[in-house]
Design brief:
5-stranded mixed β-sheet, alpha/beta, globular, Glutaredoxin
Length: 163
């Protein structure tokens, strides 16, 4: 029994080191998201203040995923269509190297916000490793959907209607 408890505590240590509470768990649909503060590729910070009162779309992706490439093209169209409407778009690259992600963004002309703080974001949104993975949060901060896999352009553009 002591060994099992010790192993459980060791598994939770990375969350404590990331500044998250010991018992952090992803929000379930309908629950309020406890946004972490993360660092974006440009060095700025994104957190609860940026999300307050605004709908948010978060996409987990990778530079090596061909499905993510198409998905991100649709996401960029959504970003352009909603640039003045208050929708927050944050993406989480499942990479370790910022230079690789920057090169990918430049190559395809993507201008959405990107963080590499995948552990912090996964801890509050979804532990699923599927990519792309799209998460929607309404303007009241409630988790609405966790959508695994590539989305069609029409479906992505529908996310502009998140209340």
């Amino acid at each position: 029994m002591r060994r099992r408890r010790a192993l459980g505590l060791c598994a939770a240590l990375p969350l404590v080191g990331a500044g998250l509470p010991l018992h952090a768990a992803p929000a379930a649909p309908g629950q309020v998201v406890a946004w972490p503060e993360v660092t974006l590729l440009d060095g700025s910070r994104w957190g609860p203040e940026q999300a307050r009162g605004k709908p948010v779309v978060v996409v987990f992706w990778s530079t090596t995923c061909p499905f993510c490439l198409r998905h991100n093209a649709h996401l960029e169209k959504l970003r352009q269509a909603t640039a003045s409407k208050g929708l927050q778009i944050l993406t989480v690259a499942r990479e370790q190297e910022a230079a690789r992600v920057q090169a990918y963004l430049s190559r395809y002309g993507y201008r959405f916000a990107v963080t590499l703080d995948q552990a912090a974001m996964a801890a509050v949104l979804s532990p699923r490793k599927v990519i792309p993975l799209t998460v929607t949060v309404d303007s009241r901060g409630h988790l609405r959907q966790v959508i695994p896999g590539e989305m069609f352009e029409e479906d992505m553009l529908e996310l502009a209607r998140i209340p």
